[in-house]
């Protein structure tokens, strides 16, 4: 694995950073989404034959990180091209690829992703949304919560469960559910989170879907699911690193300029050292994120799973610490709208909680990596 970014990746960072800075912290989500699509950034990970850039999660994570570092993150990048686009590209039928991938790449269509349920939480094995055969069609029933951007998405990739034809056991399967499908309802969840993308609870009341709504093999189970979840963790890490970098940059500028008793406050170690530590933590998290993306793009799903969880954990912790230290550096100004970092206090916690909590990652690492007895 290369530990130094290629010239192409460096050039991509520079170009995306310039785009993000042009839009700034008060960015218009639709305008930024449209321009990022026209420049080829949204579909950089999707196959060239379907209108994408032919790159991988490594390139897409760079795009999201740099937009976040400019104060203009696009949350739906995690969902639409990273999760849904990847799953369809790897497991979709030719018809599904033709229908969705070019549109996801050029930004004209978006797709949400629904996995979390009210009673399942982080335990995907307890998902109760079920799909039953009805002739050649499917009928899907269940509930989902904390689904991002359903109101702006053309469809939602829903994780349900079907009966394995070989064992009779329920296994996860993925279905494309159009936003206007009869029986497919949504309720806006009010969040104390300042983000352009809204959160929703979904109800699927005997939603009838054609056979071609199923993505991949109904018996493939966790293989297909984690093809989307590993990129989700990697992209969440990139999202967190970008957010942390943005907060840190605001704090560094303030610490250089803010003068008390004829000395910039950044000259004091009590200010400088915590900011340096935050920078180190973000850089270390980025290295693990790069490793996870590299392994995933190389097709090492097992190695990528371990690294993606570690990257998400490290980035979430680094982001929270960076935002907290940034606010603390600015003092009272850190809580004002003028400086624009107070809203990140809540947003930074998302990287600790979603899409999987840090405690579940520690469970995974202690059991899968360290070989300790399973605790859950």
User: How many distinct helices?
Assistant: 10
N to C succession of SSEs: HHHHHEEEEEEEEHEEHHHH
Largest sheet: 4 strands, mixed
What overall form do the CA principal axes indicate?
A: globular
What oligomeric state is this? single chain
Overall strand count: 10
Strand content bin = 15-25%
Q: Which secondary-structure class do the elements indicate?
A: alpha+beta
- Cα(first) to Cα(last) distance is 33 Å
Tell me the strand order in the biggest sheet. Answer: 1-4-5-8
Mean pLDDT: 93
- Residues in helix, %: 40-55%
Could you tell me the radius of gyration in angstroms?
21 Å
Poorly predicted spans: none
Description:
This protein is α+β, with helices and mostly antiparallel strands. It has 10 helices and 10 strands. It has helices at residues 7-23, 29-38, 57-69, 76-91, 94-106, 222-257, 269-297, 301-330, 344-353, 358-369, and strands spanning 111-114, 130-134, 137-148, 155-163, 170-178, 184-189, 199-209, 214-215, 259-260, 263-264. Strands 1-4-5-8 form a 4-stranded mixed beta sheet, covered by helices on one side. Strands 2-3-7-6 form a 4-stranded antiparallel beta sheet, with no helix packed on it. The protein has a two-stranded antiparallel sheet with strand order 9-10. Helix 6 runs antiparallel to helix 7 (269-297). The longest helix is centred in the middle third of the chain and has 36 residues, at 222-257. The protein is globular, with a radius of gyration of 21 Å. The two termini are 33 Å apart. The model has no long low-confidence stretch (mean pLDDT 93).
